[in-house]
């Protein structure tokens, strides 16, 4: 994509986000976005086949931002709790401008028939990138070897839970979500270190085997 | 409510559910429901102020069904894993007829601004009843005393996770959800019994304290 195209694409996206904010997601149409951005409807559709595509692009961009910020914040530490905290805060930071339409995104993106649901095919690449952030979280830490293969996806699932909590969070600046991240990260790190105990390990192995059985 | 009223209310609800199934949730209107049920629009609105109210009634009924079936299934056992399994299966049993519009319910009920979101005020009574099912689950079991006050709500939250998994479950008769319940229940029971270990207990106590701090 050349520079001009990138600019137009970004203009359409930013216009759409502004309109989602001011008019609400459901009332915003592709036609309205094109008119507001001053591009033809055909041009808007060229970059985004639907409003769903715009949501997906937003998701992709937020993952990119989260990844860059998390990497930077993790550079100087090997402690799992600190690294996990950094990745989770970076994710919420990237989403914060969109908190007021978190509910609309749940309606549009969470239903299983949605083209952009976070567990679906269309969002596969963004999901892989998001899971890769949590693979980086455990790099260089003391996480037990038998956990390493499945842990990034499990941590990402936990992050999805944090995002759901954040959508419902009505406290000022979503402070409760920050409390959740700060409180849960060291607990998860400790829990993972317990998985080495001979009495706990079989339980964790059973849980991992269950997760494999649950794959579609 | 007299018998005739109860019948009319139920007729409106059953008609609505049939239409949600055949036409989809969003395309079904209160006017259409009234016409199909052969009652006046005023009468339909008398029982249900909105489609949201119909969703809430469905939620209430499913909790009632779950509770009755769970109580019956738990009557002869004091094992936590078996009791938890019974309560979770009973919940999914009650929801099974509505699987094909699980996605529509997510759109309508899950957003935080929805009047009937499962964490909101309007659904408070139904939520209490649902949590009471999990209070019954731990009755007579060996769950450590320090966990008893908060555990029913935590188990209910876990059940909400199972419901979300079920909504996404495209396997035949949602078998993966059944596998999840059968696999996770004994793991949760074992995990809870570990919370007695001197090394684990402080961690669990910290998690409970965090949960208290996260209350709105």
TrEMBL record, chains A, B:
Keywords recorded for this protein, A-Z: DNA-binding
GO molecular function list: DNA binding
Signal peptide limits: none
Residue ranges of every copy of the HTH tetR-type domain listed in the record: 6-66
One protein family per Pfam: TetR_C_23
InterPro entries assigned to the protein according to its UniProt record, in alphabetical order: DNA-bd_HTH_TetR-type_CS, Homeodomain-like_sf, HTH-type_Tx_Regulator, HTH_TetR, Tet_transcr_reg_TetR-rel_C_sf, TetR_C_23
DNA-binding region extent: 29-48
Protein name: TetR family transcriptional regulator
Protein source organism: Arthrobacter alpinus
